[in-house]
Amino acid sequence: MTPTGLLARADARVPASVLGAGSPSSTAAAQRFGSFMLAAAYTALFVLAVASYDEYDELVASWWSPLHLSGLLVCALAWLTAGLLGRSGGYTVVAFLSWAMCLSSVIAWQFAWTGAHLGLLGVADRPILQSLYAHLPAVALILVHRPRLAILALVSCVAIGAVGVGQLSYGRLDVALLMATLWSLCVTLVYLALVWAVVVIADRTDHERRRALKAARQGSWYIARDREGQRLDALVHDRIIAVLAELHSGRIDAHTAEQARAVLDELENWSVAADAEAPARPLTRDELAEKLSTAVAEVGGAEGVQVDVDAERAAEYPFEAAVALSDAAVEAVRNARLHAGPTATCVAMIVLRGDEVVVDVVDDGVGFDVEQLPPTAIGLPIAIRERMGRLAGGSADVQSAIGSGTRVRLRWRRPRTVAA
């Protein structure tokens, strides 16, 4: 598998809920709430219309009342369905449907009106052409981000509906009706402005959320890339270069052959190793002691491994600390094997305390000048110092002198925040 594929797969393993992608957007939540409110409003108008129809038999033709009633019922059911389904495209369709139903009702009134009006009939002034009905399509179009069409819907429905109201109430159109209509439009515009403000705030919230989510995903990608690079660096230096160095020195024995086979196996199972790299839990005291002692013993350069445990059995240690300590210790033992001299002996001492782990790798070899490392050196500056430096609470100290052997001390101290 290519490194790019590994990074993509590693990013895909991050749960969507952690990055905030699993919850609905603010716009979707506002639209869904608005759809239920519109469904309730149309339902209320439907009930009022049913209660008023019998009192206006002489005002309009018999076919208009079922048309008006069916329009209210269709809008109520459509908004309820849209809210239950929660699809943004569905809200837009229902908003235009509401506009069409309202226009058909107020326009049909002009053809169904008999010429009579409430003043002549003496009927109580009940709004058979409910003014709220003419305003709801504008609210619906604002909810689906159609502000210009919302204004057009408001003006068209209210203007045509006002003609019907004037005919019904006074039998004529006059200045008083015009002023009342303008007042109704102005009041409704205030409510539309409030709804539009909610929609705009929801959009901006979603925009900021998407930007934060993108940044989080990019951060996860960079972290994954950095970890993959660290794994690759460790493989190249700790395994491949180490095997090549042993081959160059002429040490071709069973251990070298085993190391070479292990490198080939790791290359073949690179992606599988990436999946198994980070367990879901920290290591216990006994598990950490076994991991460190086994890693040092398997490299084949230490004459002895001493483990001193001074921690409670229930103590736990981060997996990252265990990996860094064991890899750096293996590198220190490998360096002693390759550079301390053929007669040198090397021992490793591991001390486990509750909040601290110390690994000392000591040899009595030829030693070297720590301050005079060649620029091409990789083991000490990268595989030991840099590796421990990247670990929170980690440190590495190297003491050596020509003819006096070498001591590499690896230390991890539990950070205070973690301990708290």
Report mean pLDDT, rounded to a whole number.
75
* Domain unit count: 2
Cα separation of the termini: 41 Å
Contiguous runs where pLDDT drops below 50 for at least 5 residues: 1-22, 120-128
H and E order: HHHHHHHHHHHEHEEHEEHEEH
Q: Care to count the β-strands?
A: 7
Shape: rod-shaped
User: Strand content of the residues, in percent?
Assistant: 5-15%
The secondary structure category is alpha+beta
Give the biggest sheet. 5 strands, mixed
* Structure annotation, total helices: 15
Radius of gyration, taken over Cα atoms and rounded to an integer in Å: 39 Å
Strand neighbour order, sheet with most strands: 2-4-5-7-6
Percent of residues in helices? 55-70%
Describe this structure in words.
The protein is of the alpha+beta class and 420 residues long. The chain has two domains: 3-213, no CATH class; 282-419, Heat Shock Protein 90, CATH 3.30.565.10. It has 15 helices and seven strands. It has helices spanning 3-12, 16-19, 26-52, 64-85, 88-112, 118-121, 131-143, 147-169, 175-248, 254-268, 270-275, 285-298, 319-339, 379-390, 416-419; strands at residues 283-284, 304-310, 316-317, 346-353, 356-363, 394-400, 406-413. A five-stranded mixed beta sheet has the order 2-4-5-7-6. Helix 3 packs antiparallel against helix 9 (175-248), helix 7 (131-143) packs parallel to helix 9 (175-248) and helix 12 (285-298) packs parallel to helix 13 (319-339). The radius of gyration is 39 Å and the shape is rod-shaped. The two termini are 41 Å apart. Residues 1-22 and 120-128 have low confidence and may be disordered.
